[in-house]
Amino acid sequence: MRIAITGGSGFVGSALVNYLLEQQHEVWIVTRSTGKVDADHPKLHVVTWEDLASKPERLEGVRAIVNLAGESINQRWSPEAKERILKSRLEAADRIAKVVRHLHNKPQVVVNASGISYYGNSETELFDEGSPGQASDFLSSVVDKWEKAADAIPAPRIIKLRVGLVLGNDGGAFPKMVMPYRFFVGGKVGSGKQWISWIHIDDIVRLIAFCMENEHIAGPVNAAAPEPVINDHFGRAISKALGRPHWFPVPSFMLKGVFGELSVLLLEGQRGIPRKALDSGFTFRYPTINEAMEELLGSS
User: Fold this and answer.
1) What DSSP assignment string belongs to 232-249?
2) Tens of pLDDT, residues 94-124
């Protein structure tokens, strides 16, 4: 299959590119600069957004597009940063829509990254793909607008991948979350009761491929493991895998002082489950947090 990926040089994107190449797919990375990508593989190609603006036919024959592009949310949310975070996501979806409109043979599926924060924050509710969105805070509002922008892409099948916390050693927030435990000062964050919907990096790339290949899957898909955990249990799993203590709590006021509004990522959360993936027959390699931590940290 010929597949185009935006954000292909990022944490999840790089892992997805490697996985698809191993499966013998032809991969086109869409990026702002070709210098960011090492295209030393016979089935890997790189094209810039600027090239596509003038020659959208370069993606003629692409059967699937995966949109992972977007400014990182892991930064202090100043008004300017908030604008960049939202604008980058809306622009990427709009650019893809413009390219697809010019193609004679439309891609059969577009997988557009979204966020589990679509559902808002709660310590008591359980969310699946049928749960309503909240758009009650910055992140849930961004995701709501992001998904609406994806709906404008003229492809037969649109998948909105509501991604949880992706666990991997090569990027994302996970290495920073592990660091205190390596220095023997790990512990719960805030109350420790906030939910974390998480997914192992291997499982998210397999889930993306699964969604592309199964034609009956469309609309929202929660990209999260079947067993979300509260923050305290998440930390205890890190502690167990590393053989380090879980004892040094980080109070909420300290995080708010250091990170400002960004602290909501650590202090609040949602309990999302991947009902659509499970009902469709997807099998998680790492369904529990202890299995994921053992694979990622067991040999550390």
Assistant:
1) HHHHHHHHHHHT--B---
2) 999 999 999 999 999 999 999 999 999 999 9
Rounded Cα distance between 43 and 199, Å, is 28
Contacts of 220 (CB under 8 A, 6+ apart): 114, 118, 129, 147, 159, 160, 162, 276
Distance CA(185)–CA(244), nearest Å, equals: 9
Q: Are 132 and 270 in contact, with CB atoms under 8 Å apart?
A: no
Of 122, 110, 116, 244, the closest CA to residue 178 belongs to 244
CA gap 32, 95 in Å, rounded: 12
Beta bridge partners of 159: 111, 219
In terms of pTM, does the model score above 0.90?
yes
Cα–Cα distance for residue pair 41/24, rounded to 1 Å: 11
pLDDT in tens, 247-297: 999 999 988 887 888 888 889 999 999 999 999 999 999 999 999 999 999
Write down the H helix ranges in the chain. 11-22, 49-54, 79-102, 138-150, 174-182, 201-213, 231-242, 252-259, 264-267, 275-279, 289-297
Q: Percent helix, strand and coil across the chain, each rounded to 5?
A: 45, 20, 40
Query: Is residue 71 a contact partner of residue 137, using CB atoms and an 8 Å limit?
Result: no
Token pair 């509260």 in the structure block, residue: 230
Q: What is d(CA 278, CA 263) in angstroms, rounded to the nearest whole number?
A: 31
In the Cβ-directed half-sphere of 202, how many Cα atoms lie within 13 Å? 11
Alpha-carbon span 107 to 262, nearest angstrom: 36
Token pair belonging to 40: 């030393």
First to last CA, the chain: 37
Phi first, then psi: give them for residue 26, nearest 5 degrees.
Answer: -95, 125
| Of the candidates 177, 228, 168, 224, the residue with the CA atom closest to the CA atom of residue 16 | 168
